[in-house]
Request: fold
Amino acid sequence: MSQPATAGRRDQIATNLATVRERIATACADAGREPSDVQLVVVTKFFPASDVRVLADLGVTDVGENRHQEAEAKAAECADLGLRWHFIGGLQSNKAAAVAAYADVVESVDRLKLVAPLERGAERRERAVEVLLQVSLDPPGAQGRAGAEPGDLAALAAAVAESDNLRLRGLMAVAPLGADPAAAFARLAAIQRDFLADHPDATWLSAGMSGDLEHAIRAGATHVRVGSAVLGSRPQVK
Ligand SMILES: *Cc1c(COP(=O)(O)O)cnc(C)c1O
Reply:
């Protein structure tokens, strides 16, 4: 077990969290939406389990991680907290079953190859895993892009929907670096409209991070994934 967080660290997280909750409330008010329509997922990657404990104590219910080994260890260390764990990172098919063993929500499903191992992992755990399809908002051919092409969503959605232990909940996206987030999220909203025509119950839309959550909420995000605005800046190395 790691050392508990210091009182100073706890105060810092509490202050940051209050600021982020206020930003969400303001963005919802501006968009004519209810704050209860937007779920805050605090992204805890790079930060210790002791910070996760502080977050749980401050009323956070959902946390996000993007690297399998780190996520697996932290989820195990924090198993007593009853948190919902979101996996939001690039997923390798040979790790997908292991991710489904602890993740309650897998937000980064972007290709067909992931569906069978996720289903296997969820079945072994005897608990359904909630799935979001990650859609790319990058221009075609962009470097290092993550996410399915909008045109590939239908087949991916069908495969998830047919899996006994996976629940298709909706879409996830990241605004492209350096691009106008308002335009990117407007594109996402249009993609979601088409998607909902086929999957009307898959209403979750995970979009928005520390720097652009207001734009995402305006475009209909139901989940925002916020890391640095709550926990501070991360080391630059990936
Ligand atoms: C790290 C990460 C976030 C959080 O980013 P911040 O800018 O720190 O809020 C959100 N979504 C994904 C997919 C991430 O990898």
Observations:
- Residues 43, 45, 66, 88-89, 174, 209-211, 225-229 surround pyridoxal-5'-phosphate (CB under 6 Å).
